[in-house]
Amino acid sequence: MAAVKTANIPGEKFITAATSNTTAAAVANLAAAVNTISTGNTATTAVAAATATKESLLGTMTHQVSFNPNDNTQICAIGNGIFKLFRYSEGTLKPMFFQKFEAKNFLCHCWTADERIVIGTEDSRILVCEATGELKFDFAFFNQMPLRPCFALVSFNKGFVAAGGGGSLVIFERSGGSSGGDLAPDSNATPHSLSSQQNNSESAAGKEGFKRVREYNVQDESLKILNMAVSPNEDAVVCTLDNNQIYTVALGTADLKGDESKLEIFSQPFHHGQITGMDTCIRKPLIVTCSGDKSVRVWNYMDSTSELVKYFAEDAFSVAIHPSGLYILVGFSDKLRLMNLLIDDIRPFREFTIRGCRECRFSNGGQYFAAVHGNTIQIYSTWRFENVGNLKGHNGKVRSIHWSPDDSKIVTAGMDGAIYDWILKDMGNSGSTGNSGGANTAGAGGGGGGTGSVKREGESILKSCSYTCAVASPDGKSIYAVGSDKTLKEIVDSQIVKELDSDHVLSQVVISHSGRMMFVGTRKQQTYERTSAGTIRSMKFPLNNELAEFQEHQCHSSAITKLRVSYDDTHLFSASDDGCVYVFKIADREGRGLKKERDVMFADEILVTKSDLEEKNQTMNELKTRVEELKMENEYQLRLKDMNFNEKIKEVTEKFMQEIEALKITSSVLRTDKEKEEVRHEEEMVEERERHSRELLDLETSHNGKLMTEYDKFQELQTKTAELQLQWERQMRDMQVAKEKALAELTSHFEAKLKDKQAEIEKLQEEMKQQFKEFEETTHETEEDADSEILELKHRYERRLKEEREIGLRLKGENGIMRKKFNTLQAEIDAHKAEIAKMYAEEKKLHSIIKSLEKDIAGLKKEIQERDETIQDKEKRIYDLKKKNQELEKFKFVLDYKIKELKRQIEPREQDIQGMTQQIKEMDVELEHYHKANSDLELAIADLKLKLKAAEKQVTKERCRVKGCCTTIRKFKVDLNECVQFIQEPKIMKSQVKKLYQKYCKEVVKDEEALDLDIQQEYARHREYLEKSVNSLRQKVSKDQGVHRSENVQIMQENAVLIKEINQLRRDLRSVRSKEKAAELALRHIASFAGGDSTKDETISLPEL
């Protein structure tokens, strides 16, 4: 995006700007010693006009300016105590004057479709003004306490949308109370009286022309809506909040309920605090970020969506994601936590006692991770959670950790100006804690038995520079670092071999995995504000010379905090203190993407806990069971409905057959009646024709008389018109004579006056010539006398030289006076000439007046003719209205009779409705009784089920005991067979029998002692009783269910019939009432017509009864 044109306008900064809809004009509001409004033409980039709104006193500032969308010469400006309208005319902005009203802190405004101004205030009021500045009315934006300021307004065709504090958004639409959607207040309302109507704002809004249609809220009431915009087709509103979130709401949604009144997030939620950490993984297209808003977010950069969002109670300072994309490491203010990325949650499963970890990174293989603890870097095993090494050597805060591609080295950089290169090959060997490297070895102390020594391979210390980031090249030979000294350093073998100067501080550096590109993030200091802007510079790698070529991309409004490159080198990610994450596609100068060595196949696996999976499986089984139950229930309901509908079809068929027979009989009766009526109508028609012929003759005679009368009136009016014409002609002749006489008198008067003035001019000129001659002669004589006297009396008049000089000065003064007199006379001559020219102009003016009077005469003649035609039309109109009045009086009598008849029909219907209502209440009481009986039966069934389960358990226990006895018998048989084999040897036989006795008979004796015969008998009796009880209760329950089912079906059918009758009665009642209202309305129209002006043309549509 490039700037097409630039205009320089004096001022500190822009507060707001607006452009017109129709022409290339723009208006801007600047903050300076005086709040200034400037307007200009975008085609010429020149300031056309500027004006001051108000002195910038404490708390006084202009907030918004805008053009009238239908008139680009009118501008509105609002602010703290400021509401002004300007008109652009002749190169200047002229203020428009109107009646002032109470000054408030006006925060926003918008123009409606009918050229009105809607203004939102800090005290939760909304004002509506005309385009002239006149206040029409005001009402509340938010009625509840505490009051919420109105920060944003936007209009659409049906009304406007207001939003502000507390995350509230209210849609107002024009109410249909006033004609054409006009917002007209009460006739007695004034700007002062309107302020007293604030307590009744809702009713006033509806009455005056606006109604509150819907209200939406954000879940967090501490948020504020700052800006809004309506889509071009006006079906949705998009709004931005002070926490950098974008929400949307549909304008056309009607009848919202419950949670639907909440604003919906647009796209996905964003960070609303500075981003403190960012990382990307290998196996999935994910990046993870943490922010000062106490949230950790996982983003999918392939489809630009937010995968997971989790808020925590503590601030998150750093974050790293495992190369597999299944785990993340987050550094909080109290601990370092290792977490699982589940399908819908981020769940911690291991904690480490590292407070305020500002930097952490997983190794490229994922088997280790490094975390900063103060000025020490601790290395842990990802799978064993053991501290396998501690890197000590920094004296300040460590700001950067970088693993080499093969995880054999770590490069660290700190605020102390030190960069260390660590070798990790010997890490993890237990017991190797010796100091083998002298000063270049850091011992891995504390943390368990899995620690070992880590060798420091190289170091570079520069105290004057605080490093913020350091990375190693893909081959591990070079280190590139950036810091506070505005240089990019290349370090090889602990020596700085190259430094590239920059005009801004470099904050981050990253190298692509292919080793072909380098990206650097900057913190650019703004000149006009004490803020910094973040830019990204892409450089070709490796660096060739001292002045490396780069391309700069302006993206962030604050310093860049993190830079990462995807594993396949196709995307670049940047994060900043402004809370934004940018994703760039990496391409060459021709726009082609970098060539991939191989296609990266991203993994689809996700982590799911066993408990979640079991819970979901259980939910699925429950839902399946519920579906089966619903299927059975629906099938039963369908069968029941089929039965009901079949019965209804039979009833309706029989009913219609009876009605058809009745209609056939009625048709035959009506046919005979029709024939009789036709004969009667023919006789009546003959009588009516004779009567109409008689009435026609009477009307012709009466109309002939009226025509004669009207003709006489016309003759009289014609004579009067002729007399008026003669009188008018006499007046015109008199006026013509008077005009000519006055013109002649004026001409003679001014000619005489002109001659006098010319004579005076000639006389004055002669006097002036005579005086000039006398002056010259006097001067000449005086000079001659002076010369002679000077020559003769030089020695005598030397003492009087001073006096003579004074006399000379006096004479010069007199000469000046004479010249002034001459100039005065010349001016009088010029004035007389101007007066003569004025006389000629007055003469022309009189001629134009004469012509206009002649035109007026012709117009008056035409008006007389038009009035004659109007008189004839009015007389015809009077006759038609009198005739219509007679017809309406006849119809009034008919309507009175029908109204009385309808009232008589309504009374019995109302009595029937009351009876039906009482019957419904009784049936409701009976239904409640049945429901209570059903609940008691269900409790009894549940109790019996519990008893049945207990009996089943006892049976199972007995079966197990019997099974054990059978097993013992089988074993005894086997042992007895073995014993029988020694029947020929008595001693062995005796010992075997003893063994059998000790093995089986002692247990039998113990069992027999343990058993109680009475208890067994009692248990058997109790079991038999329970079985009989269960069987009888099952039969009873099945019988009761059948009875209740039949009773419920019968009650439902009766209820359906009663509801149908009630609905029919209600429809009849509504139709009767509507007819009654229509009849009363017609009577009021008739009464108003009879008492009104007879010259009005009114058409009344009477209802059909």
From TrEMBL:
UniProt entry tagged with the keyword Metal-binding: no
Region (Disordered) location: 181-208, 434-455, 675-694
Residue ranges of coiled coil: 610-640, 747-785, 822-961, 1048-1082
Comp. bias (Polar residues): 187-203
Record PROSITE patterns: WD_REPEATS_2 (PS50082), WD_REPEATS_REGION (PS50294)
WD repeat start-end pairs: 391-422
UniProt-listed InterPro entries: CFA-57, WD40/YVTN_repeat-like_dom_sf, WD40_repeat_dom_sf, WD40_rpt
Keywords for the protein's UniProt record, in alphabetical order: Cell projection, Cilium, Coiled coil, Flagellum, WD repeat
Compositionally biased tracts (Gly residues): 443-452
Protein name: Cilia- and flagella-associated protein 57
The organism's taxonomic lineage, starting at the top: Eukaryota, Fungi, Fungi incertae sedis, Chytridiomycota, Chytridiomycota incertae sedis
